[in-house]
């Protein structure tokens, strides 16, 4: 090859590497902004009762955040429900801060009210970074939620008669060159679930897991998934159990 060409290629490669590095640094910065904003929201006195969320019990004691996300979803005796991080936030926002239904997104997709949940979830999940996903599966309600989630995952419906399993339960499936996560494979499931909430370059936002489930339901032409619904939580229980042991590293970065 012409020597000048090689130098040019080298320079082009260097520029590309620098651009990739900058893009990665940009993703990290975006993630940090969400976590910091979530921290502020968590401590801010808000809602009709002008209270902060600092006394919320995410399962390991009021005000304890370290390790809480690693054990979600789980059964909560005070609400009598199995709750994931996002529905637990709704419970605490209702009970402690006095927020009503109108403060919560109805459908996670394209609802401006998701903004606070994206930030709060990013902050709280990050307090479990480095810990394995270890949601309990002991209480009868937890086992029941798992079974419902498993059935929903395999339930075919909608115009295309797709189930989640159609796209996500076989090795090496692709859509338009993009590899699909195989949730029947533990390693694959761990890598996916342990990195939610996640920043998506496509939207420039940090999204929550429930938000993503709603997006996939929509893409599969199913009826809209209600935010914080029993179905949404049950699917989360199922996916988190498939991913048990995955080491939490949030917010992740996805395409
Ligand atoms: C038509 C195929 C299809 C169906 C059906 C489908 N998905 Fe997806 N799913 C995708 C694609 C494509 C992506 C990757 C999108 C992206 O990241 O740009 C994805 C990504 C995901 C992710 C995030 C993976 C990651 O990168 O961490 C989760 C979680 C998920 N889907 C869950 C579900 C669930 C639950 C259902 C059933 C309600 C479902 N999907 C149904 C195509 C599908």
Describe the 3D structure:
- With 255 residues, the protein is mainly α.
- The protein has a single domain (69-254), classed as Cytochrome c-like domain (Cytochrome Bc1 Complex, Chain D, domain 2).
- The chain is built from eight helices and seven strands.
- It has helices at 3-43, 85-95, 114-126, 140-154, 164-168, 186-193, 209-219, 230-242; strands at 74-76, 81-83, 174-175, 178-179, 198-200, 205-207, 252-254.
- The strands form three sheets. A three-stranded mixed sheet has the order 6-5-7. The protein has a two-stranded antiparallel sheet with strand order 1-2.
- Heme C binds at residues 162, 164, 166-168, 175, 178, 180-181, 192, 212-213, 216-217, 219-220, 235, 254-255.
Task: Please specify the SSE layout and strand pairing.
Blueprint: H1 3-43, E1 74-76, E2 81-83, H2 85-95, H3 114-126, H4 140-154, H5 164-168, E3 174-175, E4 178-179, H6 186-193, E5 198-200, E6 205-207, H7 209-219, H8 230-242, E7 252-254
Bound molecules: heme C (HEC).
């Amino acid at each position: 090859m012409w020597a000048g060409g090689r130098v040019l290629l080298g320079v082009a490669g260097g520029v590309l590497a620098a651009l990739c590095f900058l893009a990665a640094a940009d993703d990290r910065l975006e993630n940090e902004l969400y976590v910091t904003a979530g921290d502020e929201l968590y401590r801010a006195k808000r809602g009709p009762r002008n209270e902060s969320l600092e006394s919320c019990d995410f399962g390991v004691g009021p005000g304890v955040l370290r390790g809480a996300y690693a054990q979600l979803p789980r059964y909560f005796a005070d609400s009598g429900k199995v709750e994931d991080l996002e529905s637990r936030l709704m419970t605490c926002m209702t009970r402690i801060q006095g927020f009503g239904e109108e403060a919560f997104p109805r459908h996670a997709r394209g609802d401006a009210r998701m903004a606070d949940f994206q930030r709060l979830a990013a902050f709280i999940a990050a307090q479990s970074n480095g810990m394995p996903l270890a949601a309990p599966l002991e209480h009868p309600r937890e086992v029941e939620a798992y079974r419902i989630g498993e059935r929903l995952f395999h339930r075919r419906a909608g115009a295309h008669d797709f189930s989640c399993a159609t796209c996500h339960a076989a090795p090496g499936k692709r859509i338009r060159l993009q590899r699909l996560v195989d949730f029947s494979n533990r390693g694959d499931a761990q890598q996916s679930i342990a990195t939610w909430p996640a920043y998506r370059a496509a939207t420039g936002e940090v999204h929550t897991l429930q938000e993503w489930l709603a997006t996939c339901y929509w893409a599969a032409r199913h009826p809209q998934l209600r935010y914080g619904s029993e179905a949404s939580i049950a699917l989360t229980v199922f996916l988190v159990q498939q991913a048990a042991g995955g080491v939490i590293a949030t917010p992740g970065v996805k395409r």
